[in-house]
Design brief:
Layout: H1 2-66, E1 70-75, E2 81-86, E3 116-119, H2 126-134, E4 138-142, H3 148-159, E5 164-168, E6 176-180, E7 183-186, H4 193-202
Parallel strand pairs: 3-5, 4-5
Antiparallel strand pairs: 1-2, 2-7, 4-6, 6-7
């Protein structure tokens, strides 16, 4: 009798151990399958993300090529020229040919020129300055024909005015030009009353496509 019980117990223990081995084997297989599936999913997400980013980049560059700023200037009674038409706002990595100098808007680079009262003594890239205009900045530009005293006085005004920037631009026709997004005017000098009027109306004015956007943390030359 005792021998039969011992054999039964041994057989049960063997079956239990066999079941445990089978369960451990299943767990190992499940872990391997889970890890393999996770790798496939992650790889798919990475590849899909790369394709999506590339596609968006290609779309952006294509849009930049196709979406031209169309329209013309209309001069108001106050002497301010307003761009009537479409101003594209795509972020691009390529050069942009603007219809006016300095430009009043259009496609531009992703990084803006710092415009927290920044005064640049060398010409700056239009594609970055246009992004500053999109943020609501007023851009003061001048040529070598502008009087030195006027340049100094305008620079002092810019330095104390957030959302403004200033730089030379020998490509423009007039000695001193004030530019905001979609708006522009020439002034005779730093003491021209239209300087203050332009600043008051267009620094973070109603024309701003992205009011409150940063004028720091961008490109500084």
């Amino acid at each position: 009798m005792g021998s039969a019980k011992n054999k039964s117990s041994s057989a049960r223990a063997a079956r239990i151990e066999e079941m445990r081995r089978a369960e451990r084997a299943r767990e190992r297989r499940n872990r391997i399958l889970t890890i393999a599936a996770s790798v496939v999913v992650v790889a798919g997400l990475v590849v899909g993300g790369v394709v999506l980013v590339q596609s968006q980049s290609d779309d952006s560059d294509t849009a930049a090529s196709d979406a031209k700023s169309t329209g013309k200037f209309v001069t108001g009674a106050d002497g301010v020229k307003t761009w009537e038409g479409d101003l594209a706002r795509n972020h691009v990595t390529k050069a942009v040919s603007y219809p006016v100098e300095p430009p009043v808007g259009g496609d531009h680079h992703q990084v803006w020129m710092n415009c927290n009262g920044d005064v640049y003594t060398e010409e700056i890239p239009n594609v970055n300055a246009v992004h500053s205009l999109e943020h609501g900045a007023v851009w003061v530009t001048y040529t070598s024909k502008a009087a030195e005293d006027d340049v100094d006085a305008l620079a002092a005004k810019v330095r104390k005015t957030p959302y403004t920037l200033m730089s030379p631009d020998e490509k423009q026709k007039d000695p001193i030009v004030l530019t905001a997004w979609g708006h522009q005017r020439t002034v005779t000098g730093a003491d021209d009353p239209n300087v203050d009027k332009f600043f008051e109306k267009y620094v973070q004015g109603e024309q701003t496509p992205e009011p409150g956007a940063a004028c720091t943390g961008g490109l500084s030359k």
